[in-house]
């Protein structure tokens, strides 16, 4: 792999201790040496510690003009990088097994694929969800804490919608890719550890944006015939993801999603019924093949 062909994308806010661990993990992988790393600080209360910046002189630290949200910042990083491919990581995720170079080679050989979902190992799991020996196969969505993009195509497809702010941007993008005839594959051999840090993590905010952005996914991207049923299941689906103290935030997000979805109806670009059916039948990238379809 030519290091100049791969850029590494990290967006962060108020998590400098996590960033330090992630950057150290990246620096410790010889195959990533020479790859440009661009980190955007999304309005942290304190700037990047001087010692951290000095420890990683090859990393470009950029301070945002305000809190724009991870969705917009990740797209902004893709615009700023000039590499052919982008490895997108969370500020608390990093590769631990497998070869990034092999993943890049596979993506380069398949022009119809816009992104490779990677094998995400959560901090409380003993092994990744998908057997590393599995050959790559198509999936419906990826997880943003570990994904490899074909950069220019990612931007041509619109990147992540800035209106989302946080959460569910992956599904919005994947639907747009499917609509344009592009594919998402999972690459099981490359394992990304996601620490899922509790630092600066607001469960109420998560519940709100999950509720809101799941509704926007339905109103903007689903065929008309699917909207009534999917709206009916959207709120229960969100509540299943959050703890009961955060139900009010999830419910508020659901109703705000209805309001924003109608207010911004000009963004509606639905899948055809056949595209929607095919997408719904694809497996998820977080469970073994054929176990559970994408949400």
Descriptive overview:
With 295 residues, the chain is of the alpha/beta class. The protein folds into two domains: 3-194, Spore Coat Polysaccharide Biosynthesis Protein SpsA, Chain A, CATH 3.90.550.10; 203-268, no CATH class. It is built from ten helices and nine strands. The protein has helices spanning 16-27, 50-55, 70-80, 100-109, 151-156, 169-179, 203-221, 227-239, 247-263, 273-281; strands at 6-12, 37-41, 59-63, 85-90, 93-97, 113-122, 137-138, 146-150, 183-194. Strands 1, 2, 3, 4, 5, 6, 7, 8 and 9 form a nine-stranded mixed sheet that branches. Helix 1 links the parallel strand 1 (6-12) and strand 2. Helix 7 runs antiparallel to helix 8, helix 7 runs parallel beside helix 9 and helix 8 runs antiparallel to helix 9 (247-263). The mean pLDDT is 91.
The class by helix and strand makeup works out as alpha/beta
Reading the helices and strands in chain order gives: EHEHEHEEHEEEHHEHHHH
Rg, nearest Å: 18 Å
C-alpha termini separation:
34 Å
Structural domain tally: 2
* Mean model confidence by pLDDT: 91
The CATH class of the largest domain is identified as Alpha Beta
**What's the architecture of the largest domain, going by CATH?**
Alpha-Beta Complex
Largest sheet: 9 strands, mixed
Number of strands: 9
The low-confidence parts are: none
Quaternary class: single chain
Stated plainly, the CATH topology of the largest domain is called Spore Coat Polysaccharide Biosynthesis Protein SpsA, Chain A
